[in-house]
Each structure stands twice: as C-alpha cells, then as structure tokens.
Amino acid sequence: MNRSTKPLFQPLTRDALSQQIARMLTDAIVSGQLRPGDRVAESVIARDLGVSRAPVREAGRLLESAGLLVSHANRGFFVRTMDSEDLDSLYELRLCIEREAAARVVREARVDGIIDKLRHQIDDMVESSKDEQLIFQIGVDLQFHRLIVESSGNARFLGVFDKLASEIQVCTALIERVFDEPGLVARNHYLIIDALASGDEDEARAAMDYHISVARETVVSHFRTLETA
Amino acid sequence: MNRSTKPLFQPLTRDALSQQIARMLTDAIVSGQLRPGDRVAESVIARDLGVSRAPVREAGRLLESAGLLVSHANRGFFVRTMDSEDLDSLYELRLCIEREAAARVVREARVDGIIDKLRHQIDDMVESSKDEQLIFQIGVDLQFHRLIVESSGNARFLGVFDKLASEIQVCTALIERVFDEPGLVARNHYLIIDALASGDEDEARAAMDYHISVARETVVSHFRTLETA
DNA sequence: TCAAGGTAAATTGTCGACAGACGACAATCG
DNA sequence: CGATTGTCGTCTGTCGACAATTTACCTTGA
Question: What is the model's pTM?
Fold first, then answer.
C-alpha cells in the first residue's frame, strides 16, 4: 500500500455540522457582519441554516470557550464586547506568552528551521500591506507570530495564543484605518528575526517584548479614543 | 422602599443542570473515581443521573474546554491523559502567568489588601498539612496562588490560571505520596509574601519564579518516574 | 491458533416538541 | 401622568426518538 507512505485521501470527517457552523459564525464575527453586543439566537441561526438547534448550540458553546461569544442564562449568546481594559489585559498576557516563546525557540535551538519561513511571512506581509483590507494584514501579522509560538514547542503556549488571536481579530473588525505607514510593521518584524537568529535568549525576549509593547500601546490607546467618542 | 438601599434577597440562579453535572464530573475526575483515559459516555451518565443526554453533553463540552476531557468525533468523551511533557509545558505557562501576576500586584500597589489574606491561607495550609488527603493540601496551595493571580487585576491571567489549576488537580489525583516534609511547602510560601511586601517588582518576580520552578522540577520528575515504571 | 469478515448491541449526531423564562407592550390603578 | 401588574410572543433548557457510526462479539476459513 502506498497509503502508508503518503495518505492519498484525507479522512473525511463527518462530524462537521457544529464545527461548520462555528466557522461560519466566526467568519461573520471577524468580518463584522455580527457586531459586539449583537444577539446570536440559536433558534434564528438554526432556522436560517435549515438545521436543528442542537448543533447550533454546540457551535455557540465552542465559540464561547474561544472567547468570541458570551452566554447569559436563559437568554442565549451575544457577541462578546471588549473595552480598552480587556484589550490591555489581553496584550499583557500575549506579551508573557510570546516573550517566553521567542526565548524558547532560541533555547531549544529550533531557530534554523523557521527563519526562512518567517522571512516568507514577511514577504506576504509586505504584499498584503498594499491591500486595502486591514483584516488581511492583521491575519498575516498574526500568522507570523503564530509560527514563532508554534515553533517554541510548548503546545499550551499555542493554545493560549490562538484564543487571543481570534479575539484580536474581532477587535480589528472595529477599526477601520491602518495605524502605520504601509510596510512599516512588516519591516519591524525583521528585528525579531534578527534577534532570533542571534542565538541570544535574552535578546530574543527583549525584541519580542519591545515589539508587542509597542503594538499594545498603539492598539489600546486607539481603542480608548474610540470609547470616549 | 427599603429595597433600594439594601437588597433583601439574593438573586436565585436557576440555571444549573448542565453546570451541576459539570461539577459532579469534575469532582469524580479530581477525586480519582474517573481516571485519565476512562471513557465518559454521555448516554451512561444520562441514565445514571436520570436526565436526558443534552445537559450531559453540554457539561462534557464545558469540561472539554476546561481541559479535563477530550472528545473524539463519534466516540464521545474521555478523561484527559497527561504525560510529563504536558505537565512540563503546563508549569512553564504557569510560570509566565504567576511571575507577571506577582509583579503586577506590586506594581499596581495592591499589596496592602491581600497580605493578611495570604497569611491566613498559609495557616490553613499548615493545618491541612497534618491531613492525610493530599488533594486538600494541593487545593489550599492553589488557593494561595489563585489569590495572588486574582489580585493582579488582570482577568485574563486568572482565566488561564483556573484552567491550569483544574488540570493540576487532576494530576495530583494520580500521586499518592506527599513530596515534602509536612509544612515545608507552607513555610516556603512566606518567602513569596515577604517578596510581595518588599514592594520590589523584580524581587516578587524572582520569588515566584523560584517557587514555581522548584515545584515544576519536583512534580515533573516525579511524574516521569511514574511513566517509566 | 489466528486473521478476516459479518452481524448485533451500544453510543453518538441530529431532530422536532414541549415547558419554563425572559422581554416588550398593553392594561390597570393610584 | 407615572408606576405597577397582567399578557403575549419569542427564545432557551430539556426531553425522547431516530438515523448513522462505532464497538464488541461471533462466525468462518485457512
């Protein structure tokens, strides 16, 4: 059987339904069709999609644990709202995770395999910076960071990161303009790559720390002005 | 109306069922009645409890996102298994969180309110160290740490901590003996309190770092010997 | 004896239905 | 006119039932 060497077919997973619905809802939230605070009634969704409420309900619980929805007893799901304080604590957590992840990548000598990939990501980033769609830019940016966290080898870091990343994407759905000159953020990422390549654990930590602290400052203060308005 | 000044009744929450079941399952897992790898069939649980499968299913999903159960498509829930590597990554994450939490407690000047509470916790700890039940000792220990994380003021830190704490409790259900001389761990916690009271951010960080690193080393190595056996 | 295949039992995924809870609006009373 | 109470529609929490899938057991054949 050649199947043992390379799987010809993916095992077609027939669980789906609830996961399909979860993906669909996620897209709707991230794309802004569903805005923070909006009600997500399982009966309504079920009617629209032509399925029963059970899988919708499960999808809701899934997105609740992902932090995209919140549920009130006997009142159902609502798209999660965030204020600048939430966002700040989010970035503080992200800081902890990614700082150590970067250090771990260096410490465990996992650098060699990923430097090239990271450079590719930046190319994508520069490319997408010409795009109007902010959501794509954020996506590519998060992809870059995710690769580092994934390469750290700590599965739990990745789990937390993914959860934070989805929440960050939701926030960006609320922001219309790009913060910086196109391509600037992309170029800044080279500093991280250099730090990783240096082989110095502390340097990697410091680079990541700086990078995310700047982002934190930018995003949170921007969000705060949105609130007062 | 006197009601406006002081509420006469607590709002009685009638949500329950699925949450009740979740608590029940959690207890069963933490107490060791359900062991890692065991199957948790929703139909069986539902029959035993005399309820339909729906709330059991939800409880399962709840505990899945809490990290106590895992689910395979069309095969249901199983109590999560952990190897020493999982445990190590868990403690590494815990290290990141609590280190910063301790620093934050100092930085935000939240020390005053909690020092006394922390001392009380230690009294409880010394008390429980006479107890045979390891699970109680771990519980009180986690309570101490939780208080610090909670006082940090970063809600997300607390969220991650609670998730980790429940997983740690599951692991301890597999360990029979106490690591150290009774009361030693309790006394070690005074070092953390002193560091917090010192008002020096870095000192708090270092104390917490040391404390958890020791625990990490102890628990992981102990778990590793269990595996090879 | 053991591997392969087939059938039956058990379990999950999904559905439609019903009772209770909640929110909004109309009705009532001061 | 304002506040409280009653009513109604909608939605959630829960249930029992059915179809699809997995698991366990048993048969069969070499």
Answer: 0.91
